[in-house]
Design goal:
Helix content: over 70%
Shape: globular
Mean pLDDT: 87
Number of helices: 8
Order of helices and strands: HHHHHHHH
Low-confidence stretches: none
Distance between the termini: 35 Å
Largest sheet: none
Structural class: mainly alpha
Length: about 210
Amino acid sequence: MFLFLCLLFPLGFFIWARSNDDGALRFLPSAFLGVFVSAVFCAFKFFFLPFYYLPQDSFFRNFFHIFCEYVFAPLFAMAILCFLIERRKDSFSRFENFFPLCAGFYAIYLPFRILNGRLPIPFFLLFAKPVICFSMILAASKILVALFEKRRTNIMDNSKKIFLSCALAFALLFPAVLEAAWMGGANLILTVFLTLAYLAFAAGVSVIGK
C-alpha cells in the first residue's frame, strides 16, 4: 500500500534523468543533495517544530497551510540550492538541477509527513497527493527552464513569457487548492479526476524545450 508513495519520486527521477542526453549520473549529486536536505529538515521539524495540523473549517486557512508547507517552502529552498550548487553564470543550467533537487527532497519529505500523520491514511494522501506533488515539480521545473533559457537567448516574445508565467502560477497554486478542497469534503471521484487532469497538464508542459 505504501510502495507507491515511497517509490514514485525515485522512479520518476530515474525515468526523467534517462530522458536527458547526459543520463542519470549527471543529476545524481543534485538528487542526493535534495535527499540530505530533506532528511535534516524532517529531523529538525520532528524534534523542534509543530508537526501535526488539524484541518480547519476555513478553505483559505487550509490552503495557506498546504501551500506554505508543501509548495512554497520546499520549492523556494530548492531554487536557492540551484543557484548555490551551480557556479556557471547561466540561469538555464541552474534550473536544470531544479527537478532532481525537488525529487530528492520530496522522496523523503512527503512519505515522512504522510506516514506520520493520521491513521488510517486516506486514499488521497497515499495516491493522489504524491501524483499531484510529482506533477507540480515536473511542470514547475520545465517552465522555469523554458523561461530562463528563452530569456537568455532573447527569442521569446512577451505574450509567451506571460503565458508561461501564468502556467507556472497555476502549477504552484493548484495542488494546494485541490487538497484544501479535499479537506473541505470535496467529492473523491471529482478529486481523482482533477488529479489526473493536473497530471496531464504536467505531462503536456514537460515537452517544453524539447
